[in-house]
Amino acid sequence: MSAAGRREARAAAREARSGAGPVGAGFDPGPHPGATAKFGLFGEVLAIGLLITIVSLGVVTLPIAVAAGIRHLRRFVAASDSRVGLFWADLRAGILPSLLVGVPAALIAAVLTVDVLLARSGMLPGGEIVGVVGWAGLVVLSVGVLMAAGAWSPSTGWPAAVRSVPGLLRADAVGALYVAAAAVFVGVVTWALAPLFIPAVGCAALAVVGVPARRRRGQTRAE
Questions:
Q1: For the chain, how many structural domains are there in total?
Q2: What is the DSSP letter of 1?
Q3: Cα-Cα-Cα-Cα dihedral of 36, 39, 40, 45, to 10°?
Q4: Does some domain include residue 135?
Q5: pLDDT tens-digit profile of 160-214?
Q6: Gap between the Cα atoms of 114 and 88, Å rounded
Q7: Which residues are within 8 A (CB) of 105 and not within 5 positions of it... i.e. 6 or more apart?
Q8: pTM
């Protein structure tokens, strides 16, 4: 095939993946066709970040808000049905059971935050150590909530999602570090400017979607 022919074939493949062009016989869109629409994915991350922010204003509703957002982004990158109505359906299905996770998580976060603030004030002996432990605890808690939210589905419920977290950590420790980096990113940008929580939490939800996909790609190459 000539260089011009290869360029035309690549252009046709891009149009087919984006939905802008015809799909030929035997065309394989790949495992995550929705992710090829980069601007569309960016807009979806912002939109889902806004929805998560609205739902999580109650604080204890943060886990179900993140879980519903993660499920929405999974559907989007899979080029599946990603209507916003399905986000609200997930929310209705899981909001009351999620309080078993949201309330303890909020209480633990409040205690750790108070420890960090007291450590910074100099009122506690060994304040530096207390501060480090407090920050580490907040990161661990955030990773646990994000990974449990990523494992949640209306059919299996929250107990199964929480029980799956240790296994997920053992299966992909490097991926857990990526999720931790996303959690730290949310905290840092929100501390710098509170409205940045909206895009940051959307990016964190996307990270939870993307980390397992990264692991599967690596396994495919190894095979």
A1: 1
A2: -
A3: 100
A4: yes
A5: 999 999 999 999 999 999 999 999 999 999 999 999 999 999 999 999 998 887 6
A6: 33
A7: 60, 62, 63, 141, 145
A8: 0.79
